[in-house]
Design a protein that fits this description.
11 helices, globular, seven-stranded parallel β-sheet, alpha/beta, Rossmann fold
Amino acid sequence: MSAADGIAQAKPVLLTGASGALGSMLATELAERGWGLVLTDIRPFPGPLPLGARFAQVDLCDRAAVLEVARGCSTIVHFGGVSTERPFEEVLGPNIAGLFHVYEAARAAKARVIFASSNHAIGFHERTSVLDADCELRPDTYYGLSKAYGELMGRLYWYKHGVESISIRIGSGFPEPKDRRMLSSWLSYADLARLTVAGLQAEDVGCELIWGSSNNSRTWWRRDSRERIGWAPQDSADEYSEALGSIVSNDVVAERYQGGHLCARDYSRPSFPPAHSGDDSMDEGKNRT
């Protein structure tokens, strides 16, 4: 549904986290496609507002404010909250209570939620494994734990309240991949924009989860709900493989796990889990190709 299609939107889309890198990109892309937008963030919007959009500075921890800004919206595209690892107390408010406020607002407005989850919800799977979307949650940080919570919140609100949701388990959302890990996990801005639009347009999505990665031949991820919403990635990190294939860290923890450097952050085990401990040996039998 775009301006070119000539389809007017009766209800606007609420985009949280609109002042962040991904949020501001989506604000521009969605506005250019003709979507009416309500933008919100705890910080001011970085630059002129996209055409037809309005901005409200809102703290996700303020339940009343979140309920009010979502009033009359058709979909909440939720990219707000802490976007990387922080102390638990800093994650708790925006990513736990704030996520609850978003789903309560969606329930009140009868709106769909498109939730920016993260690969860090499953970061402690090893890079030797190829995972389906229903793999075991293995968060690698408090941040990743909050994203696993968000995915489960979507299930709760679907089964208990009928709130539709799409969780996008984002890999590495950057204009270009930066290292060897991103040859597997990269999600281009254009693919993310197309995925979000597909989530807005799709009918009767229920509660679905999609791997947020481009068409990378080295991917660790497969089998999700992308066909249900009509999305397929068009970009690929493969063209960067020659330049980035040798760019690795010296951290053995970061290089072993899919979550990379966030797995290594504050890692205090004296050694890796032993082989055949029930970690990725089970995944390999079930999911590897």
